[in-house]
């Protein structure tokens, strides 16, 4: 009976004999064979492990795996050409045989049709065909239609189930009407197979923040070339995308919310807030882990804040709060993602950070020049000293003043006024002289800078402790650090996962610095008593900075005593300052005050107030007057190696939710790698290892068959749900958080930080208007009362929080949920 070319399902007669009263029905091929080719596409159902495991997808022994194993066996047979009468144990073996033959000959295959007995639902007939069989039936050809690859090829192999349960070949056609290319056969889908080991490697690399192209090329190198791989770049990329989609099955923002809830269950000090627009879409989010929250009590006095980095597919700005720890390292003190950079968004974010820090305002904050940020800081941090990033301001010189005929002379005069002024009067004189000499009184940019000079000129700010920071460089270096983990296409939940990984990297560096500070003495460069003293006190990172001041004492000379007033001596210390860009040395004078009775010392350079340790000029005066130890008031507690913190690194973030199947896979993988390494030493060990592996594979396969037949362990695919998660705050009717709207930007998406006009020379993206801001913690309606009651109890237990500002924050959250009772009861208490 001649079949209709191009159909995907047909019934066949001819040499096939039906049993009495037997009815054969056409069925959907995807219901018969897992992993089969239908119209050049793979149909594969994910295992239960794939659906339930959040962190890693572990496939069961799939049909594709069996094909590969069967091909290895068939490969030892010289005559692999199919013939009528050949028999196989299963239809999968027949498929493996024909696929191997196709690989050798240079074409791809698919399952053309299959049939089952209606009475028993038993598969009884399968037709394998060349992937170019039939013709494409298109109603309309569009611009995006795929190229037509089908040629009506008649090559095929038909098998049927015999009465004694063997699969016999009943029809063979090996003639093709197109060219076959064995060397390029690996590009057909039927020959592409992404094994479990490669999947695991891709997922681990993705979690580690390794770029996909590097991850894929590592597989190519490991295999020995592209031609040795049984898969391509597209298969790898699709697998990673499938993993991401499974993790975010309920929506990106919902997955993010669930993650925050789990983290809060693991550690009650984990803090997060989510902000929504009028359509209940996520607009802003803030979170901080337990360790960072504890660190804020010690290192939250000085922070930098910068939002010039896009890290996710919604173009939400990454807004980290960055401080300086006792090693001088950057430390994360919370993180926010904001959809629109407006005053309302920054106000919400600063309120959230202040609530997490138990209303402890920072003493100083450094930001970029932004009206929205300045307005939010003035409202939320009124007692905080706000400093603008000096680097960003000076970088704008070429953009704002580049058109002046005497630009270079103006630039030099401006830099001298900003960097070399030790007194306010000196700066004022130098500035006015520059304005008058170059006729810049009408320059609007310089006029505006002068009006806000108290926020960016160093001479106005040297009396405030900034931990040595005058720019937002630490925030931008943090952005560069995150660039290793995320890009502009990163999902929100995926970003938070990578953020957690980046945090652990920072924690590891801090632990290593702790170890190095306690285990080893720094190398001394002089015999100065100050260097010897503080080498035993300061952490390694801070001591290196202080050591530069000690060695700088050798460039100081001549102490001129100006006056003595009630035991306070005013001296002038001269220093040879070398300007590397000018390749010359200049002698500068520094005024130092010294109290003979108390050994108090104060230098006009203000280094101690700015960085937290004495400058070379003060040390020179102390040494001149016979003081052999730095007074204790000049040794800040935050720089000491024995600085005591209440937090530890073991229980700050909680363990990852890792499913049992993943642990089993990793254990077996490590054992197998060890066996491979040992077995490859010699031919004898190779044979022993090979036999052991074959025996183990056979036993495992037998156990799988036994399990299927006896229905033992049917819940193994779900056991990770109860074993991997300590508590589950979600009920079946939990709220769905809607994903944020994606902000449209001009041009090609980028994962880099936003750059101003003077850096990228392009127009800035237009700002979008936002609706009213609502500060809220999106909580389950089912557990609303319990959550609010827990929140109130936590507030009551922490007296530092119980003030008007945090009370308003709590009310905002509770009012959003429509629960007024707890607010009233809390207000009464």
From TrEMBL:
Q: Where is the composition biased (Polar residues)?
A: 771-780
Q: Any keyword Zinc?
A: yes
- A GO molecular-function term, please? zinc ion binding
InterPro entries with a match to the protein in the record:
FAR1_DNA_bnd_dom, FHY3/FAR1, MULE_transposase_dom, Znf_PMZ, Znf_SWIM
Positions of transmembrane segments: none
Query: Where do the segments described as Disordered lie?
Result: 744-780
* Tagged with keyword Zinc-finger: yes
A Gene Ontology cellular-component term: nucleus
Basic residues: compositionally biased ranges: 744-755
Where does it localize? Nucleus
* Top-rank lineage group of the source organism: Eukaryota
Query: Which ranges carry the SWIM-type domain?
Result: 590-626
Which keywords does this Swiss-Prot/TrEMBL entry list? Metal-binding, Nucleus, Zinc, Zinc-finger
What's its job? Putative transcription activator involved in regulating light control of development.
PANTHER family according to UniProt: PROTEIN FAR1-RELATED SEQUENCE, PROTEIN FAR1-RELATED SEQUENCE 10-RELATED
Q: Which family does it belong to?
A: Belongs to the FHY3/FAR1 family.
The protein's name: Protein FAR1-RELATED SEQUENCE
Q: Which organism is it from?
A: Tetracentron sinense (Spur-leaf)
């Amino acid at each position: 009976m001649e079949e209709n070319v191009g159909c995907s399902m047909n019934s066949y007669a001819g040499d096939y004999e039906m049993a009495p009263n037997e009815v054969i029905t056409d069925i959907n091929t995807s219901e018969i064979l897992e992993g089969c080719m239908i119209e050049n596409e793979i149909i594969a159902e994910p295992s239960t492990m794939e659906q339930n495991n959040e962190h890693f997808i572990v496939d069961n022994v799939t049909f594709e795996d069996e094909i590969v194993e069967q091909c290895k066996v068939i490969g030892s047979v010289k005559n692999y050409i199919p013939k009528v009468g050949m028999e196989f144990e299963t239809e999968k073996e027949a498929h493996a045989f024909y696929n191997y033959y196709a690989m050798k000959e240079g074409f791809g295959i698919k399952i053309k049709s299959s049939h089952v007995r209606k009475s028993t639902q038993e598969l009884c007939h399968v037709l394998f065909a060349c992937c170019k069989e039939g013709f494409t039936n298109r109603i309309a050809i569009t611009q995006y239609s795929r190229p037509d690859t089908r040629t009506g090829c008649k090559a095929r192999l038909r098998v049927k189930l015999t009465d004694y349960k063997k699969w016999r070949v009943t029809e063979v056609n090996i003639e093709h009407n197109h060219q076959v290319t064995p060397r390029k056969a690996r590009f057909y889908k039927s020959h592409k197979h992404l094994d479990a080991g490669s999947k695991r490697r891709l997922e681990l690399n993705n979690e580690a923040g390794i770029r996909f192209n590097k991850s894929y090329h590592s597989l190519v190198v490991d295999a020995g070339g592209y031609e040795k791989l049984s898969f391509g770049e597209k298969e790898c990329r699709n697998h990673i995308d499938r993993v991401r989609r499974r993790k975010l099955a309920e929506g990106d923002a919902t997955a993010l919310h669930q993650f925050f809830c789990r983290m809060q269950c693991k550690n009650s000090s984990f803090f997060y807030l989510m902000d929504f627009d009028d359509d209940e879409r996520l607009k802003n989010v803030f979170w901080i882990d337990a360790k960072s929250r504890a660190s804020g009590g010690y290192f939250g006095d000085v922070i930098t804040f910068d939002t010039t980095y896009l890290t996710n597919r919604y173009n939400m700005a990454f807004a980290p709060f960055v401080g300086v720890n006792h090693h001088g390292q950057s430390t994360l003190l919370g993180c926010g993602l904001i959809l629109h950079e407006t005053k309302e968004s920054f106000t919400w974010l600063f309120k959230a950070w202040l609530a997490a820090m138990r209303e402890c305002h920072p003493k100083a904050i450094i930001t970029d020049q932004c009206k929205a940020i300045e307005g939010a800081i003035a409202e939320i941090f009124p007692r905080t000293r706000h400093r603008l990033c000096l680097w960003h301001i000076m970088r704008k010189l070429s953009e704002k003043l580049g058109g002046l005929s005497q630009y270079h002379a103006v630039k030099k005069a401006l830099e001298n006024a900003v960097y070399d002024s030790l007194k306010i009067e000196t700066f004022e004189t130098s500035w006015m002289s520059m304005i008058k000499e170059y006729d810049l009184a009408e320059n609007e940019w310089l006029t505006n800078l002068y009006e806000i000079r108290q926020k960016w000129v160093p001479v106005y700010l040297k009396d405030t402790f900034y931990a040595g920071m005058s720019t937002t460089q630490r925030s931008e270096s943090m952005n560069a650090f995150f660039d290793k983990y995320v890009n502009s296409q990163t999902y929100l939940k995926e970003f938070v996962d990578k953020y957690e990984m980046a945090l652990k990297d920072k924690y590891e560096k801090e632990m290593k610095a702790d170890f190095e500070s306690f285990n080893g003495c720094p190398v001394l460069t002089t015999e100065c008593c100050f260097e010897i003293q503080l080498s035993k006190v300061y952490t390694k990172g801070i001591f290196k900075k202080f050591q530069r001041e000690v060695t700088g004492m050798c460039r100081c000379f001549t102490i001129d005593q100006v006056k003595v007033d009630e035991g306070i001596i005013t001296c002038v210390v001269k220093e040879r300052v070398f300007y590397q860009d000018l390749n010359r040395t200049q002698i500068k004078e520094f005024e130092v005050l010294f109290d003979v009775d108390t050994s108090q010392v104060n230098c006009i350079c203000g280094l101690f107030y700015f960085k937290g340790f004495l400058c070379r000029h003060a040390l020179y005066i102390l040494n001149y007057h016979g003081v052999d130890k730095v007074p204790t008031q000049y040794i800040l507690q935050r720089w000491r190696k024995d600085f005591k913190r209440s937090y530890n690194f073991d229980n700050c973030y909680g363990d990852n939710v890792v499913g049992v199947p993943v642990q089993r896979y990793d254990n077996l993988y490590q054992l197998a790698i060890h066996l491979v390494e040992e077995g490859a030493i010699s031919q004898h060990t190779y044979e022993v290892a090979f036999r052991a592996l074959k025996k183990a594979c056979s036993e495992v396969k037998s156990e799988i068959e036994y399990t299927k037949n006896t229905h033992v362990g049917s819940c193994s695919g779900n056991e990770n749900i109860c074993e991997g998660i300590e508590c589950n705050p979600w009920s079946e009717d939990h709220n769905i958080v809607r994903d944020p709207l994606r902000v449209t930007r001009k041009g090609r998406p980028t994962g880099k930080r936003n750059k101003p006009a003077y850096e990228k020379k392009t127009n800035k993206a237009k700002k979008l208007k936002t609706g009213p801001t609502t500060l809220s913690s999106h909580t389950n309606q089912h557990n609303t009362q319990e959550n609010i009651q827990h929140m109130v109890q936590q507030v009551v237990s922490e007296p530092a929080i119980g003030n008007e500002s945090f009370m308003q924050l709590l009310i905002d959250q509770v009012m959003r949920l429509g629960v007024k009772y707890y607010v009233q009861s809390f207000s009464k208490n």
